[in-house]
Specification:
alpha+beta; elongated; six-stranded mixed barrel
Length: 306
């Protein structure tokens, strides 16, 4: 079978048509596809090569025109939508000028409704949809008293641990601290917590160990990082455990990194030991006790014992 010669003039005309209807970034690809179709048909013995090529070009032109019409309609719809929105804004401004009290009341009502819905969904999401980041939360109990200044020693925590109604107990308080010496200074949400706090919460560290126990001289200068803080401030460096960081101008050794999701209390970014720095809380150190109920102990029985 004799092969048909390459129709250079037809390809030249086809290339010119492609250049007219196809965007610049797609011209080479489309023209190559047309030529490839020509060769595939020739290999299978098709005799209507020129007619098929012209038909492909006509289909390409028709498809391009349809796409341009769709794009034009889309742009027109967006313009109409923008114009309609502008007219609505102008109408709202006119109504506000005529009836400012009514408009303000309506806007305030919508704002309060949206805020309430958001708050309710957030609470439901946190409490019902997402599991809490610590085991058996129904056994955890907070014991709050009037803001009395307690010393940095472990006496308060030990007093609750000695009660048979609890399997573990610790203390915590909320505040903030400044991270220094790591580029620009950063304000971190901090919490004062002793070693019993992590034991009562029932959550172990992802890296290292939780807050070390007190010594005869009190609590040493150790810090425990939240997972997000470890990733954002220290680039997830596993070697951070055992190294020193500077908080409020003082050196703290990183003892551990907590697992993802654990940020109690609140959105804590770093936990520091009691008495390490009274600038953290900004007030008198009046910690909250968190305790884990022993097996079989109800909240009513614990309250009666306390």
């Amino acid at each position: 079978m004799t092969q048909a010669p390459r129709p250079s003039r037809l390809f030249t005309i086809g290339g010119a048509i492609v250049a007219l209807v196809v965007p610049r970034d797609r011209r080479e690809m489309v023209e190559g596809d047309l030529i490839e179709l020509w060769h595939e048909r020739r290999q299978i013995g098709r005799r209507d090569l020129r007619r098929a090529y012209v038909r492909d070009l006509a289909g390409l032109v028709a498809a391009t025109r349809r796409q341009r019409r769709r794009d034009a309609r889309s742009i027109a719809q967006r313009l109409r939508g923008g114009f309609a929105m502008w007219m609505d804004v102008r109408h709202a401004i006119r109504v506000f000028r005529r009836q400012p009290v009514f408009t303000a009341a309506a806007v305030l009502t919508l704002t309060l409704g949206i805020a309430a819905s958001t708050a309710i969904f957030t609470a439901v999401d946190r409490l019902l949809l997402r599991p809490l980041p610590y085991p058996t939360p129904e056994q955890l109990m907070e014991v709050r008293k009037a803001p009395i200044r307690f010393g940095p020693g472990p006496a308060l925590s030990q007093a609750f641990r000695a009660l048979e109604i609890f399997d573990g107990a610790g203390v915590y308080d909320s505040g903030g601290t400044n991270l220094e010496g790591r580029g620009e200074s950063a304000r971190l949400v901090a919490a004062i917590a002793d070693d019993g706090f992590f034991e009562a919460m029932g959550v172990g560290p992802l890296l290292g160990r939780p807050m070390p126990s007190h010594t005869a001289d009190g609590f040493p200068h150790f810090a425990v990082l939240a997972y997000d803080t470890w990733v954002a401030r220290f680039q997830g460096d596993r070697a951070i455990v055992g190294t020193a960081i500077t908080l409020n101008g003082k050196s703290y050794t990183v003892s551990g990194v907590m697992p993802p999701g654990f940020r109690f209390p609140g959105r804590t970014e770093v936990w520091l030991p009691p008495g390490a720095d009274f600038q953290v809380t900004g007030t008198a150190y009046a910690p909250t006790v968190v305790a884990r109920l022993a097996a079989g102990v109800t909240i009513e029985r614990a309250r009666a014992a306390l």
